[in-house]
Q: What sequence folds into this?
């Protein structure tokens, strides 16, 4: 007799719905196995044949951290294309390479943590490069396109499972794990939630990642918004993955909970399903979850809900149906199509900001390409390792011929003289292997160590001439003649060992400090360690903790960068200055910028080139906007770091092979004084972004020029059920084939509350040959014209006139018309029945929204603990009230008045036990009919609610 084949368990049966299969597998897992699944690195369950699984594979603009892959433009560059279809194809290519790389390296995950849909509210945010736009509509359109590409188009199985980052209202690296964004209800619903919502509703999102920061006083990892908003937008199970280390922050840095058992339980109950903490070591998270269960803070149902959501993603990825998975055999990697797509994306991301006729360059022209980024192809923290590389210099060589292109990098060349009269010297290392950081891939590249196989610097009589670059804010890099940057490894020695500055803690940056004891002497401080460079018998090292043990260096310049630039510029017909940033320095994850200004070193080079040659164009290659004086420059371009084909793309645009059609995805402000405080998240009250900014920008949102010309005509609006159909024609009136980005904006003409000056409703990028015409049609749902009515806690379409504006940017409007819409008239706040929730104010001064409890609800407190004011418009007291009650915690005074008049009631609160120990106090308050209510809070108190009775 032969042994009977055991029956196939239901979770292995592809004929059953995923939900039933998940139920079956969940029932077979022990409690310990289920708990273990909640860590990022979920172990295998061998007895069931279930493999190990990890959440999280970075794939922002290509597969990151896992070695060589196709590198596309940075996310902000993809946003600048304004091309949904292009970005979908980029997502498709990235997910195809993810599958292909996983086939040969199982460290590569299929749960991709991308895209970033945080809005680019503030241009000094260090992670500006990761987002798409300051506008929620454009952000959601680009994010939706990217996630659709990542997901694939099979109805059941997903190529990869994208997770959106970072929930919610996260635009500062300064104190990012302890700061709280105060987000009023209108900003929450009209701005921050909107980009996430529209992307999730499109149906190609597997989950979200909460951000490090707090919103309204409550950490995002225990936010009730995950339940109240996110999970209501779709009927799919969404996987919520914590950010790295954030679960521990709830206790360690934020001190929001007393124990890790409490915090872990609160996160799971709030909706976190996978904990990214302590690297590959799951023991601490497992112990915390078990402890929370033992203390009654969690139930097995809570565990099961989280595990179910993770399993839902795993089933969709085809893990349990390898024979049916349509993507299982994917092998497309670094294909000709992917290389062509990388170039196409880089070309479409280039924005022509200004052109007085200098571009495109004339045939046979002699070009000087100068600047610190002229021969660079920079990567960022979320890049893969380059397979192919194209710098602006290489692109121009290829396009115009090396004999017609001159180059001057513009570095300052310097020798560093020691106090003994010797000079820092880089030993010859002819036989050293040429290593590229991260080429082999790493699950956590922050753990990659510096090289120790090369000899450290020494000091001798001749020394070595070093290339010094000042990246701004006093941050310097020093490069040896062989192209390697001075870097510091774990042993503390200084070596010429790095191919580029990089790493989680950059080890290639230094500061020069003036010596207090030696005239013209300088101390060299290593930024990564905070230690000073000293010279010892065994080599140059960072050993001195204070200035007393530091070497004192003299700076001997052999050439100033501006001199080399001026020589090259004077000999050329046209000069191209390539300026910008290194994405690992001055503005990156963990580090916000402090200014919009171009670093002084690069400003020197730009002015030297312009003084030597008036036909000077500026190409800014950067992860963020700059404020530059372009009055005497005939041409200015901007592109984000464009990936592997950046140089080729730029040269083709300069030559006129491609007409530029990128558009700015965020406002470029003219100066630092135009910016709000970095932590001011009130885009309405702070008049932020193109939506509300009332000043004159350097370049407006949506701006971008072309070598072609386009006419807009025949605007027609047709009312339909619940929407407006908007149609118009665009004609290429030039002799150049080119793309145009047509943009549709709306504006409420007589709004009763502050509304956007204009707001993007739709866009489309089209290619038109000379003389060609196309008709563009958009369907605009009336819901797009609603605002969040704080008086009633819901969206409302206000009746009245609305402008529809069509053009080439937010400030270049070519056509407009006005429509009258029947909406819902405003009604007063029913305060006699419902009172006033403090956070539902119409206007505020110096107020911050904080958490009512650690679980749910909002309260308001003075920002500085001294005084704040709140205004609530049109409060209906009916036939009259005689008493006001306030629900408050803390200590201080609440003053109430009507219409800004004299005080009617004053409530004094003695100190309560803590910020969540609320009490209700009353005072006489006589009012009838409709009035504006003004509240003034004095002292460190929290106001949750005001009630009226009598």
A:
């Amino acid at each position: 007799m032969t042994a009977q084949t055991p029956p196939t368990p239901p979770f292995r049966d592809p004929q059953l719905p995923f939900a039933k299969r998940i139920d079956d597998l969940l029932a077979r897992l022990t409690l310990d196995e289920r708990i273990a699944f909640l860590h990022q690195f979920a172990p295998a369950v061998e007895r069931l044949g279930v493999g190990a699984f990890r959440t999280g594979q970075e794939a922002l603009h290509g597969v990151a951290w896992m070695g060589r892959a196709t590198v596309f433009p940075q996310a902000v560059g993809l946003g600048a294309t304004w091309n949904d279809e292009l970005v979908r194809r980029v997502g498709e290519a990235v997910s195809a390479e993810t599958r292909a790389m996983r086939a040969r390296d199982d460290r590569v995950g299929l749960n991709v943590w991308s895209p970033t849909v945080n809005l680019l509210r503030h241009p000094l945010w260090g992670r500006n490069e990761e987002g798409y736009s300051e506008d929620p509509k454009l952000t959601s359109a680009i994010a939706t396109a990217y996630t659709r590409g990542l997901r694939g188009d099979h109805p059941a199985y997903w190529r990869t499972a994208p997770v959106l980052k970072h929930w919610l209202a996260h635009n500062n690296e300064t104190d990012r794990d302890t700061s709280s964004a105060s987000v009023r209800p209108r900003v929450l619903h009209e701005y921050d939630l909107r980009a996430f919502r529209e992307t999730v509703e499109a149906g190609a999102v597997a989950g979200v990642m909460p951000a490090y920061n707090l919103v309204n006083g409550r950490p995002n990892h225990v936010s009730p918004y995950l339940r109240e908003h996110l999970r209501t937008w779709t009927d799919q199970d969404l996987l919520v993955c914590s950010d790295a280390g954030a679960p521990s922050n709830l206790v360690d840095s934020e001190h929001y909970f007393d124990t890790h058992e409490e915090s872990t339980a609160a996160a799971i109950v709030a909706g976190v399903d996978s904990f990214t903490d302590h690297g590959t070591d799951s023991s601490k998270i497992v112990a915390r979850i078990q402890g929370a269960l033992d203390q009654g803070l969690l139930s097995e149902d809570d565990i099961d809900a989280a595990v179910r959501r993770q399993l839902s993603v795993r089933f969709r990825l085809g893990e349990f149906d390898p024979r049916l998975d349509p993507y299982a055999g994917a092998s497309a990697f670094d294909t000709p199509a992917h290389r062509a797509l990388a170039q196409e994306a880089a070309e479409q991301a280039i924005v022509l900001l200004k052109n007085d006729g200098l571009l495109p360059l004339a045939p046979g022209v002699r070009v000087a390409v100068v600047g610190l980024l002229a021969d660079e192809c920079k990567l960022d923290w979320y890049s893969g390792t380059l397979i192919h590389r194209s710098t602006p210099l290489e692109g121009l060589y290829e396009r115009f011929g090396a004999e017609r292109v001159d180059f001057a990098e513009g570095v300052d060349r310097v020798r560093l003289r020691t106090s003994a009269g010797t000079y820092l010297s880089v030993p010859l290392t002819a036989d050293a292997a040429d290593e590229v950081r991260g080429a082999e891939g790493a699950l956590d590249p922050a753990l990659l160590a510096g090289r120790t196989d090369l000899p450290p610097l020494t000091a001798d009589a001749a020394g070595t001439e070093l290339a010094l670059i000042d990246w701004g804010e006093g941050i310097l890099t020093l490069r040896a003649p062989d192209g390697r940057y001075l870097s510091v490894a774990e042993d503390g020695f200084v070596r010429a060992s790095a191919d580029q500055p990089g790493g989680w803690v950059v080890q290639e940056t230094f500061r020069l400090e003036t010596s207090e004891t030696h005239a013209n002497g300088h101390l060299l401080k290593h930024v990564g360690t905070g230690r000073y460079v000293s010279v010892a018998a065994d080599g140059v090292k960072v050993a001195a903790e204070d200035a007393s043990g530091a070497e004192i260096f003299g700076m001997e310049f052999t050439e100033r960068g501006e001199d080399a630039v001026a020589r090259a510029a004077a000999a050329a017909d046209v000069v191209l200055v390539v300026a910008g940033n290194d994405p690992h320095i001055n503005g990156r994850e963990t580090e916000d910028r402090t200014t919009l200004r171009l670093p002084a070193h690069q400003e020197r080079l730009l002015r030297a080139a312009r003084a030597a040659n008036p036909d000077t164009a500026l190409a800014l290659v950067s992860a963020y906007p700059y404020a530059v004086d372009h009055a005497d420059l005939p041409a200015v371009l901007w592109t984000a770091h464009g990936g592997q084909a950046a140089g080729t793309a730029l040269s083709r645009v300069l030559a006129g092979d491609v007409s530029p059609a990128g558009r700015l995805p965020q406002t470029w402000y003219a100066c630092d004084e135009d910016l709000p405080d970095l932590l001011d998240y009130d885009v309405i009250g702070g008049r932020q972004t193109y939506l509300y900014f009332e000043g004159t920008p350097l370049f407006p949102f949506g701006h971008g020029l072309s070598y072609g010309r386009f006419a807009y005509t025949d605007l027609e609006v047709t009312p339909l059920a619940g929407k407006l159909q908007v149609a118009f024609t665009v004609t290429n009136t030039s002799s150049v084939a080119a793309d145009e980005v047509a943009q549709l904006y709306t504006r409420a003409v007589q709004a009763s509350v502050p509304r956007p000056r204009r707001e993007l409703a739709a866009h489309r990028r089209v290619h038109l040959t000379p003389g060609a015409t196309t008709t563009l049609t958009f369907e605009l749902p009336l819901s797009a014209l609603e605002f969040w009515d704080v008086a009633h806690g819901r969206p409302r379409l206000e009746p009245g006139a609305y402008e529809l504006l069509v053009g080439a940017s937010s400030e270049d409007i070519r056509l407009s018309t006005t429509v009258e819409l029947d909406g819902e008239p405003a009604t007063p706040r029913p305060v006699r029945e419902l009172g006033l929730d403090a956070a539902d104010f119409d206007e505020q001064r110096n107020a911050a929204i904080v958490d009512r409890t650690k679980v749910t609800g909002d309260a308001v407190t003075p920002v500085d603990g001294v005084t704040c004011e709140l205004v609530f418009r049109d409060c209906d007291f009916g036939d009259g009230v005689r008493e006001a009650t306030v629900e408050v915690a803390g200590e201080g005074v609440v003053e109430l008045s009507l219409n800004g008049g004299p005080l009617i009631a004053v409530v004094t609160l003695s100190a309560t036990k803590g910020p969540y120990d609320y009490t209700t106090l009353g005072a006489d308050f006589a009012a009838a009919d409709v009035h504006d209510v003004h509240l003034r809070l004095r002292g460190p108190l929290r106001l949750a609610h005001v009630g009226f009775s009598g």
Summary: The CA atoms of residues 853 and 916 lie 6 Å apart. DSSP finds 18 helices and 48 strands in the chain. The two ends are 89 Å apart (CA to CA).
